[in-house]
Design brief:
By secondary structure, the chain is α+β, with helices and mostly antiparallel strands. It is built from 3 helices and 12 strands. A hairpin with a 2-residue loop joins strand 2 and strand 3. It starts with 9 loop residues before the first helix and ends in a 6-residue tail after the last strand.
Length: 222
């Protein structure tokens, strides 16, 4: 007699359950494992503003170097100049003297801002009137107390310069020309030097002033 054994499928169910448990264990292990985040170092990117500032500093350094090379002004003084967007115009400089006068005048510009130096090379004192907005920053050739100042006309400052004395000034706006005016009977000789940092040009000339004389400063503007 043949005996037939009935399969219940219990073994199949046990095997499936075992596989499910293994998968659960693996999934749990994966979740429990710490995830390492990879950090990528980003290189700093220069903004347009930073690039513009860098270029401005390069130009300014070049401008200062020219004046330092010429021995006209030191780095700290000229680096304080600020650009001005206004249109430059001629300004009046008054000269009062008894005998023949000799002045050494230097005008420099960077963009529209400017620097001025006036030295009395005469054998006696002179009075020089300049726009009040020209700010005196230094006295040379004499004690500070010897260079007095007063306001004899609205908008102008009058300086007394002893023989050999000079003043240095910062100008918010470099003029396009100088209008020298002198009520004195004798002639004044102006040894004028202009320094244009726009094209790094330097010019020198002697101007004779009796009564009124207009001088253009910048050849590049003509």
């Amino acid at each position: 007699m043949t005996v037939t054994k009935k399969r219940t499928g219990k073994g199949t169910r046990s095997s499936a359950k075992h596989k499910t448990e293994k998968i659960a264990e693996v999934a749990t292990a994966v979740r429990a494992k710490p995830v390492t985040k990879k950090t990528v170092a980003m290189k700093p990117v220069a903004t347009r503003k930073e690039l513009h500032l860098g270029m401005h500093l390069i130009i300014a350094s070049s401008a200062i170097a020219v004046l330092m090379l010429l021995g006209i002004v030191d780095r700290v003084t000229f680096s304080t100049l600020l650009s001005n967007a206004a249109n430059p115009l001629p300004v009046t400089i008054g000269i009062e003297h008894n005998g023949s006068a000799v002045l050494a005048v230097v005008i420099a510009r960077k963009t529209n801002a400017g620097y001025a130096s006036i030295i009395n090379d005469s054998g006696e004192g002179v009075h020089v009137s300049v726009p009040s907005e020209w700010k005196r920053i230094e006295v040379t050739g004499t004690a500070l107390t010897n260079v007095t100042e007063d306001v004899v006309l609205l908008g102008f400052t009058r300086y007394a310069l002893p023989a050999g004395a000079g003043i240095k000034m910062l100008l918010p706006l470099a003029p396009s020309g100088l209008f020298f005016e002198s009520p004195s009977a004798s002639t004044a000789a102006i040894n004028l030097q202009t320094i244009d940092l726009t094209d790094e040009s330097v010019t020198q000339r002697t101007v004779l002033v009796k009564d009124k004389t207009l001088v253009r400063l910048w050849e590049s503007d003509e």
